[in-house]
Write a structure and sequence with these properties.
- It is a single chain.
- By secondary structure, the chain is an alpha+beta fold.
- It has 2 domains: 86 residues, Glutaredoxin, CATH 3.40.30.10; 101 residues, Up-down Bundle (Glutathione S-transferase Yfyf (Class Pi), Chain A, domain 2), CATH 1.20.1050.
- It has a 4-stranded mixed beta sheet with strand order 2-1-3-4, with helices on one face.
- Strand 1, helix 1 and strand 2 form a beta-alpha-beta unit.
- Helix 1 packs antiparallel against helix 5.
- The chain starts with a strand and ends in a 12-residue tail after the last helix.
- The relative contact order is 0.15.
- Bound molecules: glutathione.
- Glutathione binds next to loops.
């Protein structure tokens, strides 16, 4: 398998899950701005939409959209228990959380804070939305070791990656102590460290890659 990634971006979710799964893969870096593939080539010929992550399977199939890709990986290694089995209510709950992090936290929360050209007044709206969602997550993590309860899953990599971005947009996480201790637990996982090291993000906090 071949992972197309840009350091520290949402593709880090897939990078971490590939390490958690212990499956063989190669990681290919994309310049997020120029869409040039490290070593040469136009990433838009791989994914016409130009964004990462994308995972190319050994038979040439291209998977896109992080929340779908990580479930595909989890299903290849059911013994690793990275996601509850399909056709269970727990799997639906996992999908609900994955969608929450992709939509409410990523696209409807952090993404606008990265965009140049969005006025500070508008960014304040998204900061307030994020604050409400972090407060909800902090409450949830008061009694839960992981997002899914007592069991680690792919959604923990998702929240870890999304909350990393707080550092890059100066969003203060100190009002959320349960989130902070949760982040430390997830950051200590070998798979998380390996993926972050491979993307040049250790030591963390790291500055945002150019
Ligand atoms: N819907 C996609 C969005 C992925 C996404 O937003 N990727 C960003 C990095 S975090 C990206 O590659 N942005 C560059 C671009 O859109 O041109 C997913 O959830 O996988």
């Amino acid at each position: 398998m071949k992972l197309f990634y840009a350091p520290g971006s949402s593709s880090l979710l897939v990078h971490i899950v590939l390490h958690e799964a212990g499956l063989p893969f190669t990681a290919v870096r994309i310049d997020e701005h120029t869409k040039i593939i490290d070593g040469g080539g136009d990433y838009k010929k791989v994914n016409p939409l130009g964004y990462v992550p994308a995972l190319e399977l050994d038979d040439g199939t291209l998977l896109t959209e992080g929340v779908a890709i990580v479930q595909y990986i989890a299903d290849q290694v059911p013994h690793k228990k990275l996601a509850p089995p399909n056709d269970t209510i727990e799997r639906t709950k996992l999908q609900s959380w994955l969608n929450f992090f992709a939509s409410e936290m990523h696209k409807g929360g952090f993404s606008p804070l990265f965009y140049k050209g969005i006025p500070e007044e508008a960014k304040a709206v998204f900061r307030a939305r994020l604050a409400a969602r972090f407060a909800h997550l902090d409450e949830h993590l008061r009694d839960n070791e992981y997002i899914m309860g007592q069991d680690h899953s792919v959604v923990d990599a998702h929240f870890f990656v999304v909350s990393n971005w707080a550092n890059w947009v100066n969003f203060d996480l100190s009002p959320y102590p349960n989130v902070l201790s949760y982040r430390n637990r997830i950051a200590a996982r070998a798979a998380v460290r390996s993926a972050m090291e491979a993307e040049g993000l250790i030591p963390w906090p790291s500055s945002q890659p150019a």
